Amino acid sequence: MGGMNRKDFRITAFEIKTLSWWRTRRSKIDMNPPYQRRGRLWSEADKAYLIDSILNGYDIPKLYMADFTWGDSALNKRKLPYAIIDGKQRFEAIFDFFDGKIVLNDDFVYLENPQLKVGGLGYEDLKKNHPQVAEEFDNFNLHVMSVTAQSEEPINELFVRLNRSKSLTGAEIRNAMAGPAPGVIRQIADHDFFKTNITFVVKRGQDWNAAAKFLIFEFYEKPRETKKTNLDAFVKSMKIDPNGHLELAARKVVDVLNNMSEIFLPKDKLLGSAGVLPVYYWFVRNEDEAAYPRIRKFLVGFERARRENRRVIEHSPHSVSIDRKLMDYD
Fold first, then answer.
1. Which residues contact 16 (CB under 8 A, 6 or more apart)?
2. Residue 137 and residue 139: Cα distance in Å, rounded?
3. Which of 51, 89, 198, 207 has the most other CB atoms within 10 Å of its CB?
4. How far apart are CA 195 and CA 142, in angstroms?
């Protein structure tokens, strides 16, 4: 099959293989290459609907896989033959069904034999009681495109283009940009602070977004505008880091996060919103170490005062007791 060609970039079709074939090679697939957005975004119903489509013979979109079987590549970080580019959630749904983690929806109808009652059953149930249906799943032909490249940029660009219609977040798009910044941002977001202290969800790169804001603060050594356009421009501008300024800024971020990990509690209710993190970050960064034991108590009182001030504004908008500084802060 003729592919999309460029000097160091080629897309061709893999020889069509069954789901069973891919199942036996799942350990050979890097499901989390650097440019990937996070998995497990699909609901159980979404996954079951994909299995419904497969069992009833409907076509499903092509998957794209970086193919490293041709030889050694600097892009092959985990030294595996394949790395998923597009189709991670589909693969996860398929493997989850094989593993018994999801079952068919209760209202599932097997079109080849609508009288067959298989709704609510899992893969092992099908193998035991309806082997012909399980066989349909095993032998479903998966269309996968092979992507070979000598550099990361065209793979990143392909990922973004394939996902343009899927409402990628700004953090997910930045994660697929070229240059050293995305890797540095991922390293910051891997800090224990994000695993232990925060309480907001990070499935769509909210931690990457916060990490990028911290990084831009430290890079310029002052608070900066952190809208999507500003963060995008910052990451794009970091094509190289010859003087090590980016790495130095990242080390400063890690130092502050080490302190924040001690100041805030595990799963701290104060950290329930990603939006407040840059404010807390800059506050902690500029306090003396002697003040650290008092910071959390102060913030608890501060947030309580904000809530009370908003309540007064809502019920008595002309009250003289309204704190204008807190209103400005909000």
1. 141, 142, 143
2. 6
3. 207
4. 36
